[in-house]
Amino acid sequence: MKTAYIFPGQGAQFVGMGKDLYDLNEETKALFEKANEILGFRITDIMFNGTEDELKQTKVTQPAIFLHSVILAKALGDKFQPAMVAGHSLGEFSALVSAGALSFEDGLRLVAKRANAMQKATELEPGTMAAILGLDDVIVEEACEQVDDIVVAANYNCPGQLVISGTVSGVDKACEKLLEAGAKRALKLNVGGAFHSPLMEAAKQELEAAIMDVEIQIPVCPIYQNYDALPYQDPTAIKDNLIAQLTGAVRWTQSVETMLADGAESFVEVGPGTVLQGLVKKVNRQIPTSSAVLEG
């Protein structure tokens, strides 16, 4: 059975996440404690007992979701047998660590740097995002191109759901156009900035050096990367795609379609929430999806 393992991105967090993994055994507890040490603050306190607002800060959210996903994948042991992996935005880093391309420590450091760089970029260039429901991708792309402001297609989540990203005025103008064009809804998202848009250029430059510096091994299976939805195992190409991801779109719909075309027979979501399973079902209702769970 060809199983695709998929890893969620920002937005999947919840208070209490990862506590069961922390309590599971000495090995998982040690990984969380190592993370506290690397990050320089006790992220476990916020994950297990913090407030939603504390958990919602980008510098906390991204490492928290990464830790939940990666430690869960490790805890699965021999049950974790991916034929292919993919992650949504931040989830790409979780996928790379779980597939043996990045060490746990390097992965966490990169995620922390990425979160801080994105936070800084949003303060430098304020922006926002909006989910457009019920229109073909092409119509959304064309409307964005017609706006005389920065706004781009950012997250191709599933057929009929595309998130746009850009300056506040750019997103507002695009939403107006898209509602006129027949969008069912244009929902402004509660996010800190214009992720996956040209407004993240400062973050991309900051992260580029860190990514180029890190050692990436050949993963145990292909990783389908957000940037172009194609499978990769070459470390150099993986690095280039990770760098391009910050200002490029998350092509999740296309990634799922490519994995299905390449023989994926089931999808297992590793980490908090079930958002990605829902998106996979929108691409192919018949395909089995599930959450990674520990026995016992």
Automatic annotation (TrEMBL):
Recorded family membership: Belongs to the fabD family.
Highest rank taxon of the organism: Bacteria
Gene name in the database record: fabD
Enzyme class: transferase
Keywords linked to the UniProt accession: Acyltransferase, Transferase
Record organism: Sphingobacterium daejeonense
Name of protein: Malonyl CoA-acyl carrier protein transacylase
Gene3D superfamilies: Malonyl-CoA ACP transacylase, ACP-binding, Malonyl-Coenzyme A Acyl Carrier Protein, domain 2
Stored SUPFAM superfamilies: FabD/lysophospholipase-like (SSF52151), Probable ACP-binding domain of malonyl-CoA ACP transacylase (SSF55048)
Annotated ranges, domain Malonyl-CoA:ACP transacylase (MAT): 6-293
Catalytic activity annotation: holo-[ACP] + malonyl-CoA = malonyl-[ACP] + CoA
EC id: 2.3.1.39
Alphabetized InterPro entries for the sequence: Ac_transferase_dom_sf, Acyl_transferase_dom, Acyl_Trfase/lysoPLipase, Mal-CoA-ACP_Trans/PKS_FabD, Malonyl_CoA-ACP_transAc, Malonyl_CoA-ACP_transAc_FabD, Malonyl_transacylase_ACP-bd
Recorded coiled-coil stretches: none
Ranges that cross the membrane: none
An example Gene Ontology molecular-function term: [acyl-carrier-protein] S-malonyltransferase activity
